[in-house]
Design goal:
This is Response regulator. By secondary structure, the chain is of the alpha/beta class. 34% of the residues lie in helices and 26% in strands. The protein has a five-stranded parallel β-sheet with strand order 2-1-3-4-5, with helices on both faces. The relative contact order is 0.19.
Length: 116
């Protein structure tokens, strides 16, 4: 059975890098730029991992994390973001909904260590 990944990242370069990382690690991967690009069928997939940014217009980072938890079934959620504020990272990690938080620039080996 193929492991599945969803990547949500507005930055097209990061999106492509993360998509390639997942494919190299034998994940079936869907890469989108925002939640509005998600279709109904995607919301029925139980993704093994979601890798997402937290910087989206109109929603606070912590609210976004809780929204992901509610609308997309998944086993693991990792954040890859340009927002490196320590306070935001601590809030998100303390929510116990996130497996890893990586501020750009990041080491891809650190992400690979957390893959299911």
């Amino acid at each position: 059975m193929t492991r599945t990944a969803l990547i949500i990242q507005e930055d097209i370069i990061l999106l492509r890098i993360l998509e390639r990382l997942m494919m190299v690690n034998d994940y079936g991967c869907k890469a989108i730029r925002s939640l509005s690009d998600l279709n109904i069928e995607d919301q029925e997939v139980d993704f093994d991992v979601i890798i997402s940014d937290i910087l989206f217009d109109g929603i606070a980072p912590l609210d976004f994390v809780f929204q992901i938890k509610e609308i997309i079934p998944h086993k693991s959620l990792m954040i890859v973001t340009n927002m490196g504020q320590r306070k935001v990272q601590q809030e998100i990690m303390s929510s116990n909904n996130v497996t890893g938080f990586f501020a750009v620039p990041f080491d891809m080996d650190d992400i690979q260590k957390l893959l299911i």
